[in-house]
Amino acid sequence: MSGDAGTAGNSGYGRKPFKRSKSHFADRITADGRDGWPVESGRYRLVVSRACPWASRALVSRRLLGLEDALSLAVADPIQDDRSWRFTLDPDGHDPVLGIRYLGEAYDRRETGYPGGVSVPAIVDVPTGALVTNDYQRITLDLATEWTALHRPGAPDLYPEARRDEIDEVMAGVYEDVNNGVYRAGFATGQEEYEAACAGVFRRLEELAPRLERQRYLVGGTLTEADIRLFTTLVRFDAVYHGHFKCNRWKLAEHPVLWAYVRDLFQTPGFGDTVDFDHIKRHYHQVHTGINPTAIVPLGPDLAGWLTPHHREELGGRPFGDGTPPGPVRADEEVPASGRP
Amino acid sequence: MSGDAGTAGNSGYGRKPFKRSKSHFADRITADGRDGWPVESGRYRLVVSRACPWASRALVSRRLLGLEDALSLAVADPIQDDRSWRFTLDPDGHDPVLGIRYLGEAYDRRETGYPGGVSVPAIVDVPTGALVTNDYQRITLDLATEWTALHRPGAPDLYPEARRDEIDEVMAGVYEDVNNGVYRAGFATGQEEYEAACAGVFRRLEELAPRLERQRYLVGGTLTEADIRLFTTLVRFDAVYHGHFKCNRWKLAEHPVLWAYVRDLFQTPGFGDTVDFDHIKRHYHQVHTGINPTAIVPLGPDLAGWLTPHHREELGGRPFGDGTPPGPVRADEEVPASGRP
Question: Where are the beta strands (DSSP E) in B103-176?
Fold first, then answer.
């Protein structure tokens, strides 16, 4: 998770209104390497938690763009300890490529004694083991626009130049009210602060719904970065934000338009195949003991609905534009049955 | 609330599995007065919280049977303090009939230094100010069968002799798995204990659903005590048990049969007109700080659906048997707009 709230474990919230930290390490990996980090196949490692919506954006982009072979993947344990994200899912508790136990070690190699939180997504330079960037707002845009030489044949254009103003505008509202709004609701320490955030979540969703009733995707008839960013929040909505973060005016499953929209994405190769509901549910409920002191993980919701027909094809559109869907998930990156509907 | 868990405020749960206390004061008010408490108009006062499902059974029965004039009503503040249920909603913070600030004072007049919890529903003898009974399992049965001389003309038979075996059997399962099951889920301190309780809630509801798909009420075609007892849990389901108690496999609003059944009851005079969603939501979320440390009360769920058509009339049945529906709510007992859909 990006920001202090996502990384601070039990103390995930304090007395002050929740404020998401800006990423500290904002170097960019670019085609021209102007920050010292040129796009290069096999050089970098993407570190994520499948629990985290910010990191999951990168998981989706990497799949859609076919960057699996160029940019390797480390998946952290959904349960942080007091040293934050760790590789306890890997043999011996070490990431097999970076050889470290904690993501924080890559931060240390970049800047000794950095006092901020350790967050995902993070991209690490494999040769030096040092963090390059944890800039969750930038990473996926650069995967879409700077890593093009390494894209698979048929990769979609997720951030088309002609639509960037509209994409940026939609994403800005979605970020403020939805992506981050659910956190402001969940980590609120007072009733007013909570109510403002929760009302904002539903106001924005209700504002987006008529658009999504008319067209298959947020910006026109093809998938863009805007859909990825809304998806990673919506896919968590009923499982954690509805109950754990008290965003409970309605479940997504009760909203015909948004529920069909998110199922359509979920069933599109590159989206649902990155989602691990087990990681999602255990992370939020077991880490945020400030709002769930028993750390009990709810049995619900019933996930069977995710695979039901959505009929969004009737709206037309071309999901991948002039491109094609990504192929199957690599065997070593498949989400285990415990995390799937 | 009955039992320690419902009355102990912050310490609503401990390390041991949740166990509901038996009522300590189990004298019965009967037609023949064999326990020393004869049925008598105007002599007793029913003390409830509109938040509490156990007390709300008595609210519904009293309305259906037309006992409003015979048995007066005190409504406690939904938020207990360290001395438990209190009359802070009344002018000057005193119950106008009993003249006491805390329900516990009526317990004291009955038994000095009683160490157990103070619970609702409670029936108090007005002349002496002493508690007669807090036996939540018995009170409504006696209203139905012992208070008959004071019933309104057209009062239904809520506990008909010929169907008692079936009613008792249905109620026993509903009590164990649903009425009390949601509490065992919500107050569980361990994952296994929670999962067993939560699974039991949904197993029982799914077992009841086919019955309610075929017939309008739980036991045959007329309202009985069994419906009252299921109603007072179901009406709280989406508002508190789904999120706060983690009974979140699905919302009632997602289950066509049960959602229609509970809306039918809600829209029947004597049921929904006793329900105060504001009291319900504030009580659970503000009192149980052991499971909701911020005491924030969720904005949802949207209550508009409660008043939508349910089409259960098509199943036939005669809600009140040979009787009639109760008349309108007394003006001084109307639920304020803040608590209504």
Answer: 122-125, 130-133
CATH, domain range B161-339: 1.20.1050.10
What whole-number distance in Å separates Cα of residue A149 and Cα of residue B286? 56
Q: State the pTM of this model.
A: 0.94
Asked if B299 and A254 come within 8 Å (Cβ–Cβ), the reply is: no
Annotated binding site of A for glutathione: 85
A52 assigned to active site? yes
CA dihedral B110, B116, B121, B124 (to 10 degrees): 10
CB pair distance less than 8 Å for B299 and A198: yes
CB atoms within 10 A of CB B151: 19
Does the ipTM exceed 0.95?
A: no
Q: Domain coordinates of chain B in residue numbers?
A: 161-339
**Percent of chain B residues past pLDDT 90, beyond the cut:** 91
Nearest CA in chain B to A282: B191
Q: Are B241 and B182 in contact (CB under 8 A)?
A: yes
Candidate list A13, A44, A52, A241, residue with the active-site label = A52
Confidence of residue A75 (pLDDT cuts 50, 70, 90): very high
Total Cβ atoms within 10 A of residue A164? 15
- The DSSP bridge pattern shows strands A130-133 and B44-48 to be unpaired
Name which of A107-116, A228-237, B244-253 the model is least confident about.
A107-116
- The pLDDT assigned to A131 comes to 98
